[in-house]
Design brief:
It is a single chain. The protein has about 375 residues and is of the alpha/beta class. The chain has 2 domains: about 1-180 and about 350-365, Rossmann fold; about 185-350, Rossmann fold. The chain is built from 14 helices and 12 strands. It has a 6-stranded parallel sheet, sandwiched between helices. The protein is globular, with a radius of gyration of 21 Å. The termini are close together.
Length: about 375
């Protein structure tokens, strides 16, 4: 079987969640017997991905791969000719949309849909005009791909329900493929401690989108810190200060971490907090558990599926309740071998072998 995979997330944002899943899928497919994997992307003329991936001859800017004109040229002009010429059996789109027109009578098209928040929530854009344009093009792109797909793979039962509610006719095509979180790198991989980390700290990973709920969370933390200054630890955020308006001298920001730095940051945290009120999966929760780091997560959405049993939970809209929980959890966590093992055992259900087994079954359905 010859499978082509949309590699644009890795080209455009190699440390993003979408890119991690594209890489995990590539690795799993390459281990599948009798399977040849072709990578498809758009890239600048001198980009290293051109050495091994199928790319349009015309260069594309890294920061413009999401633009409508670039997408249409790639999906509607380049892909049909390229995939037909190589007799591809399956094409997998990895960016919530992006399926090309039908590739002959035999080729199957798969949509990897991470979530539907582009349709249901207000995302962050530079202006109201950009927001309106992207909301329209996202709706058209996702709606077309949902209708055109032969199969739709989503990372959680929550996302499957959200999708079926908005596109009832597509419900029979939907299958749950939980995201891959290979355990070995998080458990044993090399680490490098970023400069500026306090001796003890709580951690939040991901701050850009409004649904991450960061301003609300930081206010609850500040209230807890004011009430218990000697016990509530400093707060470290992996993200960019521009994601949170105002001045925040009391926070530690880490930006553009590589894998070794992120591992060290996760392993050194007393607890990962994940306050999002809308998640299609919640990768940082599983990554923290794989490191043996305790977590506390908001109630609802896909976080109900990925939070280790017994972990503290909170209402993503109840600030006083969160402040009280922070005070209760402010004493330093003692890492005991038993608790570490339980967290890692929970995370193992998302490890590479489990992911490969599920992916193999879904590809088998297409065959």
């Amino acid at each position: 079987m010859r499978i082509a995979l949309d590699f644009r997330p890795v080209t455009a944002a190699p440390r993003s969640g979408m890119a991690r899943q594209a890489l995990a899928m590539e690795a799993a497919l390459r281990q599948r017997p009798g399977t040849e994997v072709l990578l498809c992307t758009a890239a600048p003329a001198d980009h290293p991905h051109r050495q091994f991936a199928l790319c349009p001859a015309a260069p594309s800017p890294i920061d413009g791969l999401h633009r409508l004109g670039e997408r249409l040229r790639f999906e509607w002009r380049f892909l049909p000719r390229t995939l037909a010429a190589r007799d591809v059996d399956v094409y997998i789109a990895t960016i919530n949309m992006g399926l090309p027109p039908r590739l002959g009578n035999r080729a199957r098209r798969v949509l990897l849909l991470h979530d539907v928040f582009q349709l249901t929530l207000r995302n962050r854009h530079g202006s109201a005009l950009k927001e309106a344009v992207y909301r329209l093009t996202d709706w058209l792109g996702i709606a077309y791909s949902v209708r055109a797909a032969d199969a739709i793979w989503v990372p959680s039962a929550y996302t499957a329900r959200e999708l079926a509610e908005r596109f009832p006719a597509a419900a029979a095509k939907v299958r749950v493929l939980p995201n891959a979180v290979p355990q070995s790198p998080w458990r044993d991989g090399p680490q490098r401690v970023p400069a500026g980390l306090p001796p003890r700290y709580w951690l939040v990973v991901g701050t850009r989108e409004p649904r991450k709920n960061i301003a609300w969370f930081v206010q609850a933390w500040r209230n807890a810190r004011r009430l218990a200054p000697d016990s509530v630890p400093p707060l470290v955020l992996v993200g960019h200060p521009a994601d949170l308006p105002g001045t925040h001298d009391d926070l530690t920001w880490l930006t553009d971490l590589d894998d070794a730095e992120l591992r060290a940051t996760l392993r050194g945290a007393e607890r990962l907090w994940h306050p999002s009120y809308a998640e299609g999966f919640g990768l940082p929760v599983i990554e923290a558990a794989a490191c043996g780091t305790p977590v506390a997560t908001a109630l609802g959405t896909a976080l109900d599926e990925v939070t280790p049993p017994g972990s503290p939970r909170f209402d993503a809209h109840d600030g006083p309740g969160l402040t009280a929980l922070m005070q209760a959890l402010a004493e330093p966590v003692r890492r005991r071998g038993e608790g570490l093992s339980e967290l890692r055992d929970w995370a193992r259900r998302f490890d590479a072998p489990a992911y490969r087994e599920r992916l193999d079954a879904l590809v088998g359905e297409l065959a």
